[in-house]
Amino acid sequence: MSDPVSSLTPAEIRRLDTAAISAWTTADVASLRTDQIKVLRSNQLQALGASNVAVLSATQIAAVTASSLVGLNASQLAVLSSQQIEGFSAAQITAFYTSQLSSFSDSQVSAFTVNQIKAMASSDIAAFSPSALATFTTDEIAAISGSGIRGLNTGHLAALSNAQIAAFTTSQIGSLASGTLSALIDSNASSLTTTQISALTSRQVAWVDLSALSTEQIAALSTSFVSVLSSSQIAGLSDDQAQALTSTQIAAMRTSGLSGLQTADIASLTNDEVAAIKANDIRGLSTAAIATLNSSQIQTLSSGQIAGMTSQQLRAFSDSQIGLFSNDQIAAMSARQLMELNADALTTGQISVLSTNTLSGLSSTFVADFSTDQIAALTTGQIAAFKSRQAAGLNITALSPDQIGVLSDSLISLLTSAQIANLSSVQAEAFTSDQIAIMRSTALSGFESEDIATFTTDEMAAIVSSSVRGLSTSVISALSDDQVQGLSTRQFANLTSQQIGSLSSTQLAAITTDQIAVMNSRQIGTLDLSLLSTDQIAAISTPLFKTLQSGAIASLSSEQVANLTTNQIASLSLRQAPGLNLAALSTTQIAVLSSQFINLLSSAQVAGLTSQQLGAMTTGQIAALKPDSLSGLAGDALSSFTSSQIAAISSRTIRSLSTAAIEQLTTTQIQALTTAQVFGLTTAQIVALSSDQIETLDSAQVSVLTGAQIAAMLLEDLQSFSTGDIAAISTRSITSLKTDQIMGLSDDQLDVLTSAQVRALSSSQLDAVLAAYAQV
Questions:
Q1: What pLDDT score does 392 carry?
Q2: Could you give the C-alpha distances from 314 to 179, 281, 577, in angstroms and in order?
Q3: For residues 323 and 348, is the Cβ–Cβ distance under 8 A?
Q4: In this structure, are residues 466 and 441 in contact, taking their beta carbons and an 8 Å threshold?
Q5: Among the listed residues 75, 66, 2, 58, the one whose alpha carbon sits nearest the alpha carbon of residue 40
Q6: Does this model's pTM top 0.90?
Q7: Quick one: which of 114, 131, 589, 755 could link to 585 by a disulfide (CB 3.0–4.6 Å)?
Q8: What per-residue confidence (pLDDT) applies to 745?
Q9: Contacts (Cβ under 8 Å, ≥6 apart) of 410
Q10: How does DSSP assign 651-682, residue by residue?
């Protein structure tokens, strides 16, 4: 006989009053079809009561119309299970009142899916308590819509973990309300990734406390954001933060922003950053900032930048700074600008490039300050350009080879590459070791390779370490092996990347390990590492090794990789991961790889590891593996894993193991599986387990088996369960037993079924129990 409720048509259901609905039993409700559920009005749904709502299946829940869901009261909402909540469609979610959403418990909120959360508006998100929102997974956090994210308040932020904060998408960051963003920066700045920081918009500038940002985060700020920073905001940066600004960011700064840079900030600017300052904005630099510019910064200034400087800025250059201007920079100055400088600070090379128009515009007083050597550098054309009013100031001399040998230190220190290059061979040979010792790099760059070839060891040793970079690449490439090895570590450390790059393979082989140890990232970046010996590779300092590009790591031979120190291996950064030849690593090297590095390994890379290498991995490394990283392992690849290593595999990662790998797990390894790992096994993996493996599962492991896992087991697998295992099956999972599985259970197994398990069985399952007992 059919159930009276299940026999009603949808039209008849819709005509029922709430009294009739409230009289339904849980069996009546459980028998409702989806077409009957769909016609229930909100007041009818409310009339069901909490106990009847609790028995609705996920399929029945999904059939309730969005307009009717608003009828659910707090007591009915409180009994909804995770499976029921997961069954709600996006349309149903958006139909809930905020008062309904706020009544859900934290555990219920944790059941919401990504698609459901994606559909929520800002008022929906705002309805959740901080503790409820804290149950969101990182994927769910990232799924909050742009409008939904505006529902977050400071209380929500305080409840979120660092991982959840890091899960915010760039579009979410850009959509945060001003007060929420300010609180996020104040309390969780360290949790924000550089990608998130780069999403900050110019309209959010006023709400961001820059002092809370790390140097990496400062470097990630967008140019549009940086372009509207005020002078006070720039001035508030720490030295480290100011040094983190990139050339692109510097280029985006306006005059007002640049005026906020402190002298210490200016001193830390790289050449690229100085060059990035716009000519129209350079007037924003204070005179104190101008006075702190170093040699490389000054030489980076373009003619346009110099032309954009004010008279006050030009007067702020010290004599030593003036001597650092390149010939092209001096030549680009007008007579008015030049006269803002001290005349006696100009080098002969600088004087030699002054145009006739510029010279003719100089005052007599300025010309009178020229030294004899400066005047001697003037060309006949330049001399001819002086006007009568300037004549009294001229003092012309000429330099002979004998004079070269007695030039003062101050003059030698101001010589330019052009001056050195234009000297005759007789003049060049006249320099003494003492003179070479005080030459700046600009002067040294004027020497030709044949000049340097004649340098004695004393003369080579006399070159100041900071000046050795003045030697041209052609000169460097002509050095003998003895000259290369004779360079002090301080000299070697000051070589430019271009100079290092000009060394031949023979010269590279001559480099000592001490010289290798003092190299910087730019220098090492120019080398073909494959040409270095294993001793030279091992001499690379750990901080320097961390700077190597992935391509450089990939160029290392197997022998070179095998000889890397454990400190070098442990220092490998995430961006270097793709280049490392894992197959060449020893088990000792494998064991020191960082967890972050391990996390980047692809399934193909992991599959390429030998069983010995896999066996050398620490539990921390194993725990850091990505979920799909073990998916490519051969069947016996985990044979060397200890119980501790097996237990360290995350539950998400264990799901990626092939069935072949699952089949090869030993009973000891099976026993080492955590309950979380067992719970995470796929049905295919469960099917792959042998009866012997199944038999090793203990009651705790069995207790977490899901219904799908139980249903996937073969009869002989279930028959291998001990009575304790049978009793450990959860009431939710027991309902998934198929009738043929139940009928295959022994009397002893049936006897230990708990009363809770029996109550959970369906009528067909109970019939199967009786039939099993009745079997002969």
A1: 42
A2: 44, 15, 49
A3: no
A4: yes
A5: 66
A6: no
A7: 589
A8: 92
A9: none
A10: HHHHTTS-HHHHHT--HHHHHH--HHHHHH--
